[in-house]
Specification:
296 residues; alpha/beta; Collagenase (Catalytic Domain); five-stranded mixed sheet; two-stranded antiparallel sheet; 11% strand; globular; binds zinc ion
C-alpha cells in the first residue's frame, strides 16, 4: 500500500509539471477520466502545439457540438437497419453523458506538425502516446488546434498499418490550412452537419476500419503523383460519406452511409469488417469487431 501511494505521488508530480499553468482552466481535464463503459470507446482530445493558441474548444462546447452533429447524422443513417432505432458512435463519455475531452499541449511546435500534411496524424499519434494516451482498447479522435500544410483532416488506417505499428488515431486540423480555408470552406464548428462535420466523421470511420479492403467497391488510389497515392479505405460510389476521388476530396454531396449495405455497414460478408458490428458503436453486437477485423 505504501509503495502504491509513493508511485501515485510521482505520477501526479510528472503530470503537474507537464501542464502549463495558463492552460489550467475550470472544467478542463488533462487526463482520460475513468471509463463508464467497458473501455472500448472513441476518446476525444483537444491537442494544441507548443506555440498554439488555446481557443478553449474543449470548454466552450465547440467540440461537443461537432460530435453531436456527427452522431445525429450517423444515427439517422443507421435507423431501420441492424437496429430499428439506429446506432450511435461510442464516444468516451462522463457520468453525466457529456463527452470526456482531454486537453493536451504538445512539446512540438505547429510547423513540425503542419509540414507533414496528410501524414501529420502519424506525428500526433506517437506524440499523444508518449503522454500515456495509448490505451489498446481505445481509438483517439484529435481536434488539433493548429495548421496543416495540405489537408483539413486525416486518419490512420488500421488495415494498412504494418505489423507492430499502432494505427488508432484520426485528426481534424483546425483551423487547418494556414489561410484558414478549412474553416472558411468547410463551415467550421456550427450546429449543422456541414463539411467540417463530414470530414471529421469520414476520418473517424477510417480509424474504425472503414472502408475494409474486402468491400466490393473498395477503392485504392493509383499512383498519379498526388499525396493520396496508394491510399485505400474509400469507395467509388458518389454521395457516400466514404467516397473519395484522388486529390479532390469534397464532401458537399455526402448523404449516404453505405446505403446499399454492401461495403462497410450492415453487409452480408461475415469475414469482412462491418461498422454495424464495431466495438465502437452502440448498441454493440455480442460478437463485436475491432477495426482490423477480417484484414489479416
Ligand atoms: Zn478518406
Amino acid at each position: 500500500m505504501k509503495i502504491f501511494i509513493k508511485y501515485s505521488i510521482i505520477a501526479l508530480f510528472f503530470l503537474t509539471t507537464n501542464v502549463h499553468s495558463a492552460d489550467e482552466k475550470i472544467g478542463r481535464n488533462f487526463i482520460d477520466l475513468e471509463d463508464i463503459d467497458d473501455g472500448y470507446n472513441i476518446h476525444v482530445m483537444y491537442v494544441i502545439p507548443a506555440d498554439g493558441v488555446d481557443k478553449e474548444y474543449d470548454l466552450n462546447s465547440k467540440i461537443s457540438m461537432l460530435l453531436y452533429q456527427i452522431d445525429k447524422w450517423f444515427n439517422s443513417k443507421t435507423k431501420d437497419r441492424l437496429y430499428t432505432d439506429g446506432q450511435n458512435l461510442k464516444f468516451d463519455r462522463k457520468e453525466n453523458g457529456k463527452i470526456d475531452i482531454t486537453f493536451l499541449r504538445l512539446e512540438k511546435v505547429d510547423n513540425e506538425i503542419s509540414k507533414e500534411g496528410i501524414q501529420a496524424v502519424n506525428v500526433l499519434q506517437p506524440a499523444i502516446s508518449s503522454h500515456g494516451f495509448n490505451d489498446p482498447k481505445k481509438v483517439y479522435f484529435i481536434i488539433y488546434g493548429g495548421s496543416n500544410r495540405d489537408v483539413c483532416a486525416s486518419s490512420q488506417l488500421p488495415s494498412y498499418a504494418t505489423e507492430g505499428i499502432i494505427a488508432n488515431t484520426a485528426a481534424l486540423y483546425y483551423p487547418g490550412k494556414r489561410s484558414g480555408s478549412c474553416i472558411d470552406n468547410n463551415g467550421g464548428f456550427k450546429p449543422e452537419f456541414n463539411e467540417t462535420a463530414k470530414a471529421a466523421l469520414h476520418e473517424i470511420l477510417h480509424v474504425l476500419g472503414a472502408v475494409p479492403q474486402c468491400a466490393e467497391d473498395h477503392l485504392v488510389f493509383e499512383s498519379e503523383g498526388t499525396i493520396n497515392d496508394g491510399i485505400g479505405g474509400h469507395i467509388a460510389i458518389p454521395g457516400d460519406i466514404m467516397y473519395s476521388v484522388q486529390s479532390n476530396v469534397t464532401y458537399d454531396k455526402a448523404k449516404h452511409l453505405d446505403y446499399k449495405s454492401t461495403n462497410y455497414y450492415n453487409h452480408k460478408n461475415p469475414n469482412c469488417l462491418d461498422i454495424a458490428k464495431s466495438k465502437y458503436v452502440t448498441p454493440t453486437v455480442i460478437d463485436s469487431q475491432l477495426p482490423s477485423f477480417g484484414e489479416r
